[in-house]
Amino acid sequence: MIIGIVGLGLIGGSLGLDLCRLNHRVWGVSRSAQTCAEAVQMSAIHYGSTDFHAIPDLSHTDIIVLCTPIDRIIPCLRELAGLVSTKTIITDVASVKASIVPSAMQIYARFIGSHPMAGKESQGIRSAELGLFQGRTCVVCPGESQATDTVKQLWQSVGMTICECTPTDHDRAVAWISHLPVMISAALIHTCQNEPNLELRKLAQTLASSGFRDTSRVGGGNPHLGLCMAQCNREQLLHALTIYQTHLAQIKEWIELENWQALLSLLAQTALDRQLFL
Ligand code: NAP
Predict the structure, then answer these.
(1) Which residue in 86, 90, 116, 142 is a FRET match for 109, CA 20 to 30 A apart?
(2) How many Å lie between the centroid of ligand 1 and the Cα of residue 15?
(3) May I ask the CATH architecture of the domain 2-165?
(4) Which CATH superfamily is domain 169-277 in?
(5) Residue 121, pLDDT above cutoff 90
């Protein structure tokens, strides 16, 4: 197939590495010419440009995957919609779906929303990694049936398991397991870093090990991505934060009251629940 990737960062670059390895013909468009050159050098694309008009394969591309920051998905789709053949399928990878998919389907009938649940804290083309999607789940929000099947096959070909759901259900679910953890983790890092006693803060930094690495990982990621999550999934995130605050206040109260039995019961339950979640 001829596949286009728009936005050659962590996700776009990683997808390109897998698709080139699978012998597709892959072109890329990114904001910077330097990024396009690096993507070619890394074999994440066969050729690239900062301008759609410079892509000779554009009119006969089978699938285009929009991997730009969230707030650039709709503007890029608008630009592309007037340039591609109506046979081309367009999908995206954005971490929010309800604010994108319905409008995107209005702009372009063969648009199918997707969200590969894979990533890491670094960003940019140099962070791209072969096999990043292997063994992970990809959300696909079904649309036109043949386009949906093709998008599902694309993600399956890079090792992903498909989960179909509506854009709204997607946003509700990721508020719990992705967007809320980013905010909690950011608050944790901020809290530790604001310890006023410099000696104590330095000691804490020295002692920080695997536990702190795990709990701080998502709060130490791409700031622009975290902001877009909050802006584009604001209501669901606020709901999740409110419920979380209630649980945190309950834990604080048990500790104040030395209600160790209640705390132990909760921790025993969460030890079991974590296994269910993962
Ligand atoms: P990233 O590493 O920052 O990559 C985004 C790339 O898009 C940048 O490198 C930039 O390339 C390019 N870009 C920016 N504006 C552009 C434009 N107007 N036209 C074309 N290219 C443009 O970010 P990412 O982590 O890959 O995230 C990209 C998308 O994946 C987001 O929508 C995000 O929600 C989604 N996502 C992220 C993760 C994750 O864990 N990071 C997981 C799943 C989905 P230049 O270098 O050329 O400026």
Answers:
(1) 116
(2) 12
(3) 3-Layer(aba) Sandwich (3.40)
(4) 6-phosphogluconate dehydrogenase C-terminal like domain (1.10.3660.10)
(5) no
Q: Ligand 1: which residue has its CA nearest to atom 42?
A: 119
pLDDT digits (tens, 9 = 90+) for 37-90: 999 999 999 999 999 999 999 999 999 999 999 999 999 999 999 999 999 999
Query: Measured from the CA of 119, which atom of ligand 1 is nearest?
Result: 40
220 lines ligand 1 (CB under 6 A): no
233 CB near ligand 1 (under 6 Å): no
SS3 63: strand
Question: What is the Å distance from ligand 1's center to 201 Cα?
Answer: 34
Inter-CA distances, 88 with 83, 107, 110, 151, 210, Å: 10, 14, 7, 11, 46
Lookup result for tokens 């070619």: 40
d(CA 38, CA 120): 20
Residue 71 has phi, psi (to 5 degrees) of: -75, -5
Pocket of ligand 1 contains residue 160 by CB under 6 Å: no
Nearest-atom index, ligand 1, CA of 14: 26
Residue holding tokens 């012998």?
23
pLDDT of residue 277: 86
Domain ranges for the chain: 2-165, 169-277
Choice from 50, 95, 138 to test ligand 1 binding pocket (greatest atom count within 8 A of CB): 95
